[in-house]
Write a structure and sequence with these properties.
alpha/beta; two-stranded antiparallel sheet; Arc Repressor Mutant, subunit A; 12 strands; D-Maltodextrin-Binding Protein, domain 2; 44% helix
Length: 305
């Protein structure tokens, strides 16, 4: 009697994450379903594969052995799928994509629509997080490829440029900054500032660029820290203060005239939009085709003001 492919995939996810909860999220299963599959696999081998310690789990010696073999088996599955798809000319499978907030909400929708038209047999699972979480998921192999803003420091991850994005100061039309052509950098300290949360790629880039202009991020009069660009824009539109966001996220507001975007005098607030993926990880044909297609779309993602 052999154990099923499903059980092997569930075991591998739990062993890799050392968490039933995170494995369930990765596999789009309920936690009880994951627990059931692990229990069935342990019954099959007639041994425990995990040690449970309160809220933590760890692999037993038997579990470590199964993990090593399961990694090799699943890699062979992926290579088989790729070989057959190349023989038949049909690209199919799943692309697990991670993107930082601005990219996922404002840049990717049109790209994913075009990719689906070209490769209708491929499913794309997109998770949108801040840059740090996207990189962590890539390190954990929870996703196949990521798109993030700014630098990534990890020797095991390849960073490839997609395009550049320009950031600008946004205010409501009645704000004092709205009448200026460009804003002197020291003037930013005089008004309420709405910030993105720690871990945001946008925030890291802003801090770096302001520092180059002689202004420390901590010198800003920050009164709110918010988790999404939409919430930041809503607060600015409500007259709470100013913020600094990607110009690509401002298309609707600029068209409606509900917000104004300005440059900071003498400062280039441009950042790189990068693809990130692991160096030595095998990629399916679906992932390779997505990467090639996305690279071709990069220039269209650019937005200036």
């Amino acid at each position: 009697m052999s154990f099923s492919d499903t059980r092997l995939r569930v075991f591998y996810a739990v062993a890799k994450q050392l968490s039933f909860t995170r494995a369930a999220e990765e596999l789009y299963l309920t936690q009880p379903a994951v627990t059931f599959q692990i229990r069935q696999l342990e019954e099959h081998f007639n041994t425990r594969l995990f040690d449970r310690h309160h809220n933590r789990i760890s692999l037993t010696e038997a579990g470590k052995t199964v993990y090593g073999y399961s990694e090799r088996i699943l890699e062979l599955y992926r290579e088989t799928e790729k070989a057959i798809s190349e023989m038949t000319g049909v690209t199919q499978g799943i692309v697990k994509l991670g993107a930082s907030t601005t990219i996922g909400e404002y840049m990717l929708p049109a790209m994913l629509s075009g990719y689906h038209e070209k490769f209708p047999n491929v499913k794309v699972r997109l998770s949108v997080d801040n840059t740090r979480l996207v990189v962590r998921k890539l390190e954990d192999a929870t996703i196949d490829i990521g798109m993030v803003e700014g630098p990534v420091k990890n020797k095991n991850i390849i960073v490839a440029l997609c395009t550049e994005d320009e950031l600008g100061v946004i205010v409501a039309p009645g704000h004092p900054f709205a009448e200026m052509n460009e804003i002197p950098i020291q003037k930013l300290k005089e008004h309420h500032f709405i910030s993105r949360e720690e871990g945001s790629g946008t925030r890291d880039v802003i801090a770096d660029q302001l520092s180059r202009g002689g202004l420390n991020y901590d010198q800003l009069n920050t009164i709110l820290e918010l988790g999404t660009t939409e919430s930041v824009k809503g607060a600015v539109e409500g007259g709470v203060g100013f913020s600094i966001v990607s110009s690509v996220s401002m298309r609707k507001e600029l068209k409606l005239g509900s917000l104004v975007i300005k440059r900071i005098k003498g400062l280039s607030m441009k950042r790189k939009i990068n693809f990130v993926h692991q160096k030595q990880k095998f990629r399916t044909k679906a992932v390779e085709e997505f990467l090639n297609y996305a690279k071709g779309c990069c220039e269209e993602l650019k937005s200036d003001f």
